[in-house]
Every structure is written in C-alpha cells, then in structure tokens.
Design goal:
By secondary structure, the chain is of the alpha/beta class. Helix content is 39%, strand content 13%. Helix 1 runs antiparallel to helix 3.
C-alpha cells in the first residue's frame, strides 16, 4: 500500500481532480471503427469501485472476467505530471505488490519508461499528429497492457500528458481498449491555477529556472 499512499499524496499536493470515465453513448459507433479492437489509484479491492463492479471471476466471459481497475493519468502538461511518472517508476515494485502494473515493464526491448508511456498514449492520437511522428504508437505496449489484465488479472496504471491531446475519435478508441479488460476505469486530470500554469510554461519555453 505504500506506493498508493505516495501517489495519493502527490495527487493531493498537485490538486488532482479524479473523474470516473464516462463517454457519451453516441461515440459507440466510432469505437467500432478503431484499429485496436483486439486490444481502465484506487486499490484493487478499492472502496472507489462501484458496488456493481465485479471483483471476482465467476464466468468464462463478461465483466466478471475483467481485472478491477485501470487508472489513466492524462496530465495535462506542466501540472506536476513528471513527479507522478517519476515515482511510479521508482515505486514500480511496490505498485506491483498492490496489483498495479505499467505496460513498459513487460517490454523486451527499447525500454524507456517515460517515452514508453508517451508511445502508449500516441496510439490514441490522430495519425498526422506531430507528437505521434516523434513518438510512434507501439502496439506491443497495447498488447502488454491487455496482458496485465488478461494474464495477471492486475490493474493498469498509465501516466502521459499526451492523452490530453486526444480528439473525439481517440477518446472513443481509448474507451474500446479499456472496456475490453477492466471493470472500473478512472481518468485522472490535474488542475493548476491558470496564471501559475502560464508562468511555468513560459519558464520552460525560455529555459528560465
């Protein structure tokens, strides 16, 4: 539980607003057109899970065969995301003991935790997005994410500001992906006071410390 406590403290300090992921029903038709059809920090026995969200495997199919939680941290940029990404890497063993895993841990080559999380997120950006050309979508990360749930029955944690750039179709694709393997999806977004955020962005662009 130490890892979840640490990330929870970071969330409080960073004014993180946790939103349970809801996508309008009219996006369902878009979901069916994605390329990821083969493909959601509450505790894995969390009180945050809705009362009707199953936490045990009772059947060969359906939601009872899904892992419990998927937590997607979407940033946005310059809102303390680096701290969460750093500590989730440092505390990955503690997170694993709490049944939380990150896709990059299952890669056999080109392992770089920060870049790998971006490369996971760019799979849900438009094909022509600039960030996707710099950090191409890696489908092995999508497959690793699914194996976390389907083979290990563990919860998923991904943190990347890149998610904040997703458009309507990308959100629908993310919904389809997460809906395959996790019964409870939580989207985490960070709020930072606007004028603090503007100063931070200005300092980064102009390399002011």
């Amino acid at each position: 539980m130490k890892a979840i406590v640490m990330l929870t403290l970071l969330a409080v300090i960073g004014n993180i607003v946790k939103l349970h992921y809801k996508v309008p029903s009219n996006l369902d038709s878009l979901s069916k057109k994605t390329n990821h059809d083969n493909f959601t920090l509450p505790s894995s026995s969390t009180e945050d899970s809705s009362s009707n969200a199953p936490t045990t495997q009772e059947g060969a199919s359906g939601t009872n065969n899904k892992a419990v939680n998927a937590v997607i941290h979407v940033g946005p940029h310059k809102t303390g995301s680096s701290a969460i990404q750093h500590y989730s890497k440092v505390l990955h063993l503690e997170l694993a003991s709490d049944k939380y895993e990150m896709p990059w841990k299952h890669l056999k080559q080109n392992v770089n935790p920060w870049e790998n999380q971006v490369e996971f997120a760019t799979c849900f950006l438009p094909e022509k997005a600039g960030e996707r050309s710099k950090y191409p979508c890696r489908e092995d990360l999508l497959e690793a994410g699914l194996s976390i749930a389907q083979q290990n029955n563990n919860s998923l944690l991904v943190s990347a500001e890149t998610f904040a750039h997703a458009e309507t179709t990308g959100v629908a694709e993310l919904k389809t992906y997460l809906g395959q393997a996790w019964s409870n999806v939580t989207i985490v977004a960070t709020y930072r006071r606007y004028y603090e955020w503007v100063v931070s962005v200005h300092c980064e662009i102009n390399k002011i410390k």
